[in-house]
Specification:
This protein has about 375 residues and is mostly helical. The protein contains 18 helices and no strands. The longest helix is centred in the first third of the chain and has 29 residues, at about 15-45.
């Protein structure tokens, strides 16, 4: 299944545009990896898992490229506006053909009705984006907008899993709640970074709805940032995100408890999903973030006694670029669960998790603290 970077022409494609498409692919592939892991765990079919996982990956790239054509075209000068529009719209259409190809190769008995409805919801969410007036939008309105344009991607991932794997409706509902909350957190964190641009463009979002006042009256992006950071909105936002993370953790634990599979099977599914992402989707090789010598060292440490394994796992978690303190998991309990697993596949997963976390941290903020830092830096250097 060809992925977006392969669709780029070898010549005539500006490097910044190629880098952007790869960035979107790296980001969308994270959704695909989730679909892959759940599919291969239940079906043990790597071809089916890869095909299914490619659908949200390619749809995310298509949507992002078309969004660029809408959101950025007003800033392009007349000389290259047509070329840039053509690049984004045409490549987005080409990437979408990968989705058509994938759907055609799914099993004939796969019920794709919920999948198609979720794709329609993604489109409706984009069309409705300009219909929410920031001056009158309530927090409830802004939350509904996040669900319509962000959390729905989690629904898509689960709908695909439900179409090809034999999970119960109860399990799928747990997964839907889990992904909705996860996507909500990531979408709102991204909205924090984009706050000055959203204020300038008249876009309503959760951070803006939490601010008591009218940010559009501020005279500059820097003034918008100063007003927001000087208010109680960041604290109120963190409380909302903490509630969502808590719910996410509860559903993750509840779903895990329903799996009648040994931990070795779950580890194998995660390993296969991460391998798919690292080998097929991600534009950055694992060796670029986790050098081979470090991989060998981790493998040797995990092959030692239990104390060595625990130290290695705890150190790896502490070194992750993501804000692990806000993760909705009991890390000690996780270590208790995996400490007895086979060293070789566990070492592979640990190296790939570190790589994926680094990539995720590069393409998006994964914590409110990071987003607030990016927001402040962007406002102070508008020329970048």
């Amino acid at each position: 299944m060809s992925l977006p970077p392969a669709a780029l022409p070898d010549a005539g494609c500006p490097p910044p545009f190629r880098a952007r498409v790869e960035r979107y692919t790296n980001q969308g592939g994270l959704i695909g990896a989730f679909t892959y892991a759940l599919t291969v765990l239940e079906t043990d079919d790597e071809t089916l898992a890869a095909t299914t996982a490619s659908i949200p990956t390619n749809l995310f790239v298509t949507s992002s490229l078309h969004d660029d054509a809408i959101d950025e075209s007003g800033d392009w000068n007349a000389a290259d506006r047509k070329r840039r529009l053509n690049e984004r719209i045409t490549l987005g259409d080409l990437v979408f053909t990968n989705v058509v190809e994938a759907v055609r190769s799914l099993p004939a008995d796969a019920d794709l009705t919920p999948v198609l409805e979720t794709v329609r919801q993604i489109g409706r969410g984009q069309l409705a984006e300009d219909h929410l007036e920031p001056s009158t939008a309530t927090l409830e309105d802004a939350v509904a907008r996040v669900d319509a344009r962000g959390a729905v991607w989690g629904d898509l991932a689960v709908a695909l899993v439900d179409a090809v794997a034999d999970y119960s409706e109860t399990q799928c509902e747990m997964l839907r709640r889990l992904t909705r909350n996860g996507m909500f957190v990531l979408t709102v964190v991204d909205d924090v970074e984009d706050l000055p641009a959203d204020v300038a463009n008249g876009v309503a979002n959760v951070p803006r709805a939490l601010y008591d006042g009218d940010l559009s009256t501020r005279e500059s992006p820097a003034a918008v940032v100063d007003a927001f950071l000087g208010s109680d909105a960041p604290d109120r936002l963190e409380a909302i995100l903490a509630e969502r993370r808590t719910a996410l953790g509860a559903d993750a634990r509840a779903f895990a408890a329903t799996l009648d599979r040994p931990e070795t099977d779950v580890l194998a599914a995660v390993r296969r999903a991460l391998s798919w992402y690292c080998d097929t989707v991600c534009s950055v090789p694992v060796e670029a973030t986790v050098p081979p010598e470090r991989q060998r060292r981790v493998r040797a440490q995990l092959a030692g006694d239990e104390a060595s394994t625990r130290r290695t796992l705890a150190a790896a978690v502490a070194e992750l670029p993501l804000e692990t303190g806000s993760l909705p998991v009991d890390l000690d309990a996780v270590i208790d669960t995996v400490v007895e697993l086979p060293a070789a596949p566990l070492a592979d997963v640990l190296s790939m998790v570190t790589h994926v976390a680094t990539i995720a941290d590069d393409v998006m903020s994964t914590s409110l603290a990071d987003a607030l830092d990016v927001l402040e830096r962007r406002a102070s250097t508008p020329q970048s």
